[in-house]
Write a structure and sequence with these properties.
Blueprint lengths: L9 E5 L11 H8 L7 E5 H7 L3 E3 L3 H8 E8 L2 E6 L4 E3 L12 E3 L5 H16 L4 E10 L2 E12 L5 E2 L15 E2 L1 H10 L10 E5 L29 H11 L13 H11 L11 E6 L2 H22 L4 H8 L3 H5 L2 E7 L10 H28 L3 E5 L6 H8 L6 E2 L2 E5 L21
Helix pairs in contact: 1-4, 7-11, 8-9, 8-12
């Protein structure tokens, strides 16, 4: 049974530790430097753990060392890189540290900080009989906040999260979201009495014995937010690139309705596309009712069948097979018809320049449609751009009661994907590039 909590909290620096070298017995050195009690929590800077574990490496090029430690680049700004390392930690430079090391060397983070914490804990218990908890820390920046603070990257002997969900506050309100990162709070508190420049890499937090457990526990893993729950997993440039490359054409949709405001946000992004002559050559018809979608698609199908029958001479069986391709629009719970308007275009008397003028505007509507698709993808919706309205523009204008100068430029099916779209490998740009 854990002892009752002490009436106050103490933060004690552990002074007198020697310079840590490879294969140093950290548990023994700490036990010798401070009189520990049951229920103490040791806050240990990762730097001395790395030194003891031989993570000091020769690296003339620090950037190459960062490359070797990183598994994913999260953000870049100038020479600064925020990356995810092998342990799942997201931090600057993968934790590669060139401070307080000899020139030409860098310190890497421990390979397994949780295992390091367990080893120190076990050694202290072996030598002193004391049951303590151990937190291994490193210095992190934080999104949206200026300044650095220490956080837990390894832990043993305590739960790193304190879950308040289901409890009630002082006003009787049930808490439904509050989960406190207690290990990070302890890491930051310990750093108040440690000294990065004064050789005090360990602190003792005393007064929270009720948090120290018999078992080593799950370690620091619960502190790492799963990628699927991380709303800010990419920096700006990475997010833009990912939004473009991760967009997929989706042809099967769930029954979940599409939120109209999400589509309007996508339209707002669409109309930021470049356009000639400072014009706004885009209009978006939003088919939010099933009746409107059915009326349009039935009229378009009839026009398509008529073309195949009268202009191409196809039989009914062949027509049925071909027109089945348009079913993707019927399966979608929402349709958007982007239209091109030539308002503000220049009039030319010759066909060459007149054609070029229209092509400029066509490029603009294409850019707007891409903005629409990418933004909807970011909202979690799947899309499929289908060109069919371009082949029966008069029909579309009549059914939707559109002005005669609005040119429908395909239709966009929108909905939640019924299945996860397949992965797509990166494309090599070299086959699409000509350099002069």
């Amino acid at each position: 049974m854990n002892p009752a909590p002490a009436p106050g909290l103490q933060l004690l620096p552990v002074e007198g530790l020697p310079e840590i070298e490879r294969d140093a017995d950290l548990g023994a050195l700490i036990a010798k430097a401070v009189e520990l009690r049951h229920g103490d929590i040791l806050v240990v800077t990762s730097k001395i753990v790395s030194k003891a574990e031989g993570r000091l490496v020769h690296a003339a090029d620090r950037e190459a060392a960062i490359d070797a430690e990183a598994v994913r680049v999260v953000a870049r700004r100038g020479r600064t890189r925020i990356v995810q390392n092998r342990q799942g930690l997201v931090l600057a430079a993968a934790g590669v540290d060139a401070s307080n090391t000899a020139p030409g060397t860098v310190l890497l983070l421990p390979l397994d900080p949780d295992a390091s914490a367990r080893a120190i804990r076990a050694r202290i218990r072996e030598l002193t009989g004391r049951q303590v908890a151990v937190i291994v820390t490193d210095t992190f920046g934080r999104a949206w906040r200026t300044g650095l603070t220490d956080v837990a990257i390894g832990a043993a002997g305590l739960d790193v999260l304190l879950d308040h969900r289901g409890t009630r506050d002082s006003h009787g309100n049930e808490l439904s979201m509050t989960v406190t990162a207690i290990a990070d709070e302890l890491a930051a508190a310990g750093d108040l009495v440690k000294g990065k420049a004064t050789g005090t890499p360990v602190a003792v937090v005393r007064g929270l014995a009720e948090r120290v457990s018999e078992a080593d526990g799950a370690g620091s893993g619960p502190l790492i937010r799963p990628l699927e729950e991380d709303m800010f997993r990419l920096g700006t440039s990475e997010a833009v690139r990912a939004a473009v490359t991760l967009r997929r054409t989706v042809r099967e949709f769930s029954d979940e309705p599409v939120h109209p405001e999400a589509v309007r946000r996508a339209v707002a992004a669409a109309v930021t596309a470049p356009a000639p002559h400072h014009t706004t050559p885009w209009r978006f018809v939003l088919l939010e009712s099933a009746a409107a979608r059915t009326a349009l698609l039935d009229a378009m199908l009839a026009a398509w069948q008529r073309d195949l029958r009268e202009l191409d001479g196809w039989d009914e069986q062949r027509i049925a097979r071909r027109t089945a391709r348009g079913d993707v629009l019927r399966r979608a719970p929402y349709l958007v018809v982007p239209c091109l308007v030539m308002e503000g275009s220049h009039a030319y008397p010759d066909p060459r320049r007149a054609a070029a003028e229209r092509e400029m505007f066509t490029v603009a509507i294409g850019a707007a449609v891409q903005n629409l698709l990418v933004t909807l993808s970011g909202e979690g919706y799947g899309t499929a751009w289908v060109s069919s309205t371009m082949f029966c523009r008069d029909t579309v204008r009549e059914v939707l009661d559109l002005p005669s100068h609005w040119d429908p430029m395909g239709a966009v099916a929108v909905g939640r994907p019924a299945t996860v779209p397949p992965e797509r490998g990166e494309r090599d740009a070299s086959g699409f590039v000509v350099v002069r």
